[in-house]
């Protein structure tokens, strides 16, 4: 498993994926900070108000797209020149190939989350907000990453079966808008893309209760295991053309 993960990391060397992973968080932060700066008469809750602005663009739109891009990219090489046929005939198990890709994507998203939080804190201090930032920040980051792993499992399943690079990204965008509908209907815990909205406190910064946290962790685990198992089963039973 370790060698399979290392091989996946090697595929990302000399790629330009890092530019995308850094550009979208910076863009979302700039948009959010501009909204906050020009509306400070309305947004008077300092760090929390700034978070509502920057996380709305980042957590609701850009992060799901980043996850989809990462998943499509780590499957891109296998889809080229029928390389899947070579992968499926190696001694590596199908499960290890999928899980290695999931680990790599999860690691990339963890780096993006860390980068975004550093940007958020620096932006807040630049705008004159008093230190320290909200104590809930750590929970938003961690829950957002956990939800991202569940979404990564969904997107990997799609990218493994769809040769097109852009189609899974388009599906992710559709998932974002469907997820908003689930969130508004108070059913966000039961749709993977809505879990990101809940976990990162995008639309509501109220702390989750113990029961809500338990349900959040349970549903993310079920989505991650369920879609991972489905993808592995499909790869085992269906030929890749």
Give an overview of the whole structure.
The structure is a single chain. With about 240 residues, the chain is mainly α. The chain has one domain. Helix content is about 75%, strand content about 0%. It contains ten helices and no strands. Helix 6 (about 95-125) runs antiparallel to helix 10 (about 210-235). The mean pLDDT is about 85. This is ABC transporter permease. Keywords: Membrane, Transmembrane, Transmembrane helix.
Strand-helix topology:
Layout lengths: L1 H10 L5 H22 L7 H29 L1 H4 L3 H5 L6 H33 L10 H25 L4 H19 L7 H8 L10 H28 L4
Helix pairs in contact: 1-6, 2-3, 2-6, 3-6, 3-7, 3-8, 6-7, 6-10, 7-9, 7-10, 8-9
Structural features:
241 residues; globular; mainly alpha
**Quick one: overall form?**
globular
Counting DSSP H or I runs of 4 or more residues, the number of helices is 10
Query: What average pLDDT do the residues reach?
Result: 87
Overall domain count: 1
Say how many strands there are: 0
Elements, N to C (H/E) = HHHHHHHHHH
Give the helix/strand class.
Answer: mainly alpha
> Mind describing the biggest β-sheet?
none
Keywords: Membrane, Transmembrane, Transmembrane helix
Pfam family, one: ABC2_membrane_4
Protein name: ABC transporter permease
């Amino acid at each position: 498993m370790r060698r399979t993960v290392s091989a996946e990391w090697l595929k990302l060397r000399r790629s330009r994926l890092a530019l995308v992973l850094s550009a979208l968080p910076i863009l979302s932060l700039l948009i959010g900070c501009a909204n906050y700066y020009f509306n400070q008469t309305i947004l008077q809750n300092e760090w929390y108000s700034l978070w509502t602005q920057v996380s709305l663009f980042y957590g609701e739109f850009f992060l799901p797209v980043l996850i989809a891009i990462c998943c499509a990219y780590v499957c891109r090489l296998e889809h080229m020149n029928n390389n899947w046929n070579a992968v499926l005939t190696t001694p590596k198990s199908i499960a290890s190939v999928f899980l290695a890709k999931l680990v790599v994507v999860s690691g990339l998203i963890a780096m993006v989350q860390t980068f975004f939080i550093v940007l958020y804190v620096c932006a807040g201090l630049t705008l004159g907000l008093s230190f320290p930032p909200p104590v809930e920040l750590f929970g938003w980051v961690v829950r957002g990453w956990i939800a991202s792993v569940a979404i990564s499992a969904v997107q990997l399943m799609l990218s493994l079966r769809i040769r097109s690079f852009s189609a899974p990204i388009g599906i992710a965008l559709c998932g974002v808008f469907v997820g908003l509908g689930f969130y508004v209907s108070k059913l966000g815990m039961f749709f993977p893309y809505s879990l990101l909205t809940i976990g990162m406190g995008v639309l509501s910064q109220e702390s989750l209760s113990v029961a809500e946290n338990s349900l959040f962790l349970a549903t993310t685990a079920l989505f991650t295991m369920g879609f991972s198992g489905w993808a592995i089963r499909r790869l085992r039973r269906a030929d890749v053309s």
